[in-house]
Specification:
about 575 residues, alpha/beta, Rossmann fold, Ribosomal Protein L25, Chain P, 3 domains, seven-stranded mixed sheet, 13 helices, 27 strands, elongated, disordered C terminus, binds adenosine-5'-triphosphate, binds magnesium ion
């Protein structure tokens, strides 16, 4: 694992103070509490990395807890994917995988305790009436006509709610706090609602379900969490979090809020991500263009690069958008050191070396990674006919074009210096072949007389090339804020029509035929590529471009929405 020195942030300051004062007996215990109603996205990833990172750095503990208190949208498929993603991100919850729904009996007993203390009551108002009684920030709410039921009646009705005697929506259990409280969350909030719905884990055991605010603090308390870290929108709910725990007199964790992380050119709403999947804008939750953890994984991102990104953007109280290039740079920095370099030609142009012996093959020695001496060298076959990138040849070169062009010399990486002598064209005038001569005295690519060669290009031997499918991914949205649309329009109109380009037959150096699924390479001068673990077959890898070598964002920003 990488050895990043964690940056100081306000959460670490709070923890340091708590450790010093002996609060929580010197323990640090965090959790990640997803609702299993979708796949995890990059925002969730930052939260997992934060919470599990704090536990690791302070030698504490980290729990994975499913907040599965809402039965209608939750599915086992989501549970499984979340467990896989949290582990992949390095969130080490050991044997502490919990489900909030397993605490339902304890939560029910605690609710009954509040009923018996006169601090909760059964209310027969409909959801609409509850809302109408609530008041506004300027006006106090109105007491429910059921607020002064006797403790005995409340206890009896609450028990019968649990037994299933009443239909959905007919009654709720509410906390008896203050209908004139300046914080609307404190105006007799609902604790339980009736919902005759099967639960993905509890089956039909329950027909009353706890509300988030009631449940969450109890879950934290049961697990003896010390620092319950959540996003800013829960700041106004903290008084309620504290109220419940104080009334019960149980162990009381500290809730701390930080600003949600968002990424430019990216959507992180679960509802919208589900829509992209359901309506086939992408090929699934793990489509390499999706901002899901599984999407990044399949694109070829590493968990360590995501951690480096989180460290870079830090933790604050101020919401902000991070640019994708910050994320991409974190990945490039890592892959530059770790990904072996290979040669691949995505859009081939044939080059014939007219003075090279026909039928001859040489083994050229290529360096695997100049950033990593231990990576060593490999042999790359060379012969009379090779492929180069179409873009690397120009019959009429623009200024400062130092690649292949008639009459000038160019270096073939790790091979020879060659010179273009002529081109072959088809009837339509398209160049089909380039004819060069090579200088046999320059084996390895260096001129013994020290003459300067400005350009170096990559190549693949035509006879030995392995044809492989390569997918070039780009940002899914053209706009930095995809939700920025005029009225009556939709974020989907900002989908980048060029987010995927498929090359059915790219030519790769032969060493890549056996690339293991999940292996990462730098295709020289083209970018970092990942052998897709799902689509690669033995001897027939499929490569995803993870990221280009250089930042291309400046280019994309200029594209009008919807343009190719
Ligand atoms: P919703 O609750 O609306 O379905 P959610 O994104 O809050 O969506 P949860 O499963 O409740 O989904 O999220 C689990 C945890 O991830 C929460 O603690 C939440 O605060 C955190 N989280 C979600 N999105 C982000 C984000 N963009 N940045 C940081 N943390 C996030
Ligand atoms: Mg949530």
């Amino acid at each position: 694992m990488e050895t990043l020195t964690p940056k100081m942030n306000f959460i670490r300051e709070i923890i340091d103070r708590d450790l010093e004062s002996g609060k929580f007996e010197g323990r640090v215990h965090t959790r990640f509490p997803p609702e299993p109603n979708g796949y995890l996205h990059i925002g969730h990833a930052t939260s997992i990395i934060l919470n599990s990172g704090l536990a690791r750095d302070y030698k504490g503990k980290f729990n994975l807890r499913f907040d599965d208190t809402n039965p209608s949208k939750e599915e086992q498929e989501y549970v499984d994917s979340i467990v896989e993603d949290v582990k992949w991100l390095g969130g080490d919850f050991e044997d502490r995988l919990f489900f909030a729904s397993d605490y339902f009996p304890q939560m029910y007993d605690w609710a009954m305790q509040l009923v018996k203390a006169g601090k909760a009551y059964v209310c027969d108002l409909t959801p609409e009436e509850v809302r109408a009684h609530r008041g506004t920030p300027q006006e106090p709410g109105k007491d429910s006509p059921f607020r002064n039921r006797s403790i005995e009646e409340n206890a009896d009705l609450f028990e019968r709610m649990r037994k299933g005697e009443f239909p959905d929506g007919s009654r709720t259990l509410r906390a008896k706090i203050d209908m004139a409280h300046p914080n609307l969350n404190m105006r007799d909030p609902v604790m339980y609602r009736i919902l005759h719905t099967e639960h993905h884990r509890q089956g039909n055991k329950w027909c009353i379900y706890p509300m988030y605010d009631w449940a969450h603090g109890l879950e934290d308390s049961i697990e003896r969490i010390t620092h319950s870290i959540c996003t800013l929108e829960f700041e106004d709910h903290r008084p309620l979090y504290d109220w419940y725990l104080d009334q019960l007199g149980v162990y009381h964790p500290q809730q701390i809020e930080f600003a949600r992380r968002t990424l430019g050119n990216t959507i992180t709403s679960k509802r919208k991500l589900l829509e992209l999947v359901k309506e086939n804008y992408v090929e699934g939750w793990d489509d390499p263009r999706m901002p899901t953890v599984s999407g990044y994984r399949r694109r070829g991102y590493t968990a360590s690069a995501l951690r480096a990104f989180c460290d870079e953007i830090g933790i604050t109280k101020v919401p902000g958008i991070s640019d994708i290039w910050v994320l991409e740079n974190a990945l490039r920095n890592e892959l530059n050191k770790t990904a072996p370099r290979v040669m691949a030609v995505l859009k081939p142009l044939k080059v014939v070396l007219t003075n090279y012996p026909e039928g001859q093959t040489e083994e050229m020695c290529a360096v695997n990674n100049p950033e990593d001496e231990a990576a060593g060298t490999r042999k790359v076959p060379f012969c009379r006919e090779i492929y180069i990138e179409q873009d690397d040849f120009k019959e009429v070169p623009p200024k400062k074009f130092f690649r292949m062009t008639p009459g000038t010399e160019v270096r073939l990486r790790s091979a020879y210096i060659v010179k273009c002598e002529s081109v072959v064209k088809d009837a339509a005038g398209n160049i089909t072949e380039v004819h060069c001569t090579y200088d046999p005295a320059t084996r390895g690519g260096d001129a013994p007389d020290g003459r300067k060669i400005k350009g170096t290009i990559h190549w693949v031997s035509a006879r030995h090339a392995v044809p492989v499918k390569v997918r070039l991914y780009d940002a899914l949205f053209t706009k930095r804020n995809p939700d920025d649309v005029e009225e009556g329009h939709d974020y989907k109109e900002n989908i980048n029509p060029a987010s995927l380009e498929i090359i059915e037959e790219a030519f790769l150096e032969p060493s890549l035929a056996q690339a293991a699924p999940g292996a990462r390479f730098q295709f020289e001068r083209l970018g970092y590529f990942f052998a897709d673990p799902k689509d690669s077959k033995p001897g027939a890898p499929v490569f995803n471009r993870t990221v280009t070598l250089k930042d291309t964002w400046a280019k994309l920003e200029q594209k009008p929405a919807g343009a190719k």
